[in-house]
Known about the structure:
Elements: H1 32-41, H2 47-58, H3 75-82, E1 87-95, E2 100-107, E3 112-119, E4 124-127, E5 131-133, H4 142-146, E6 148-151, H5 154-169, E7 182-185, H6 195-206, E8 220-224, H7 228-237, E9 242-246, H8 252-258, H9 267-281, E10 285-291, H10 299-309, E11 314-320, H11 334-346, E12 350-353, H12 367-373
Parallel strand pairs: 4-7, 7-8, 8-9, 9-10, 10-11, 11-12
Antiparallel strand pairs: 1-2, 2-3, 3-4, 5-6
Amino acid sequence: MSRPDEPTPINLVFDEPPQRKKIPKHLADFSPEGRREFAKELGLPAFRAGQMANHYFTHLSPDPQSWSDIPAEMRESFAEKFTPSLITLVRSVTCDNGMTRKDLWKLHDGVLVESVLMRYTDRTTVCISSQAGCGMDCPFCATGQAGLTRNLSAAEITEQIVAAARTCASGELPGGPTRLSNVVFMGMGEPMANYNAVMRSLRNITDPTPDGLGISARSVTLSTVGLVNGIEKLTAEGLPVTLAVSLHTPDDELRDTLVPINSRWKVKEVLLAADAYAEKTGRRYSIEYALIRDINDQTWRADLLGRLLKNRNAHVNLIPLNPTPGSKWTASRKEDEAEFLRILESYGVATTVRDTRGREIDGACGQLAAAESSK
């Protein structure tokens, strides 16, 4: 981790960096048309790609023997070609009487990532990872402390979501079978720094079956620490997902330390980009604000944030910090949290305090992977 007075190297490249080991191609890496071309490259009729997408996205079926429209002698070969194994479950931990489940996945090259599945009374949400580690170097974040290992492919991202949808459909969560309704890109990594793969996975989520999972774009949240060029590209996509900006403080002086990318794009630039996204899509954006004791929870910062946001189409999500073992960073006092909330609401800024699920299962992104890696 860099000291606050040291310059932080920032990777602003959106394309996938060279991999240490080539990731097998998977149908979820391609658009529907690309899947048909992929089938042709494999020497197969194009319609086979549509059949495989139907099994994968509509039926969530990993068992080739259930693919009755594929000749029996070709099923195993099709599985290897179209849906190779990319992620393997290492272990799962649960809390909230089983309603929150954190999965640790091993990728094909041994890299570890995490996802979290949460069932509520009105929805079931999966929080997924877009990178193994993160290069944004935010000092209070477990994933940021680990650094960036590599980007995930679109299929590796999608596989986490399909696995969650399968868990929901099979009735593994308390309460019986349900449908995965929401997807949140707030796990390990900075989604905008893996832009192309994340966009493909967003299309996989929102495209109607059989080309995708058919989840509404309004039920998908994409988080960023404030890569303005990524927000601008997302605005041009015309895909009305919910944009979440991890701001964490309204003043540039502190944000330069808490969120080092702020040395490239300042708070006002980030908010202007988010405003443009809201205007284009008609979607209110979210300001993520991790409340850190005696660091960013002062009343004057609440006042400044309220003045910045009072006329914007924004909602503030206050997050009681989930501390990592051995870290000096910890959650704000409840009375400071309540006062911060009161001040924001006095400006007419819509504000909620996030549900603190997952604390007892190393809920902060990166904690489970770090614990497994240290064994």
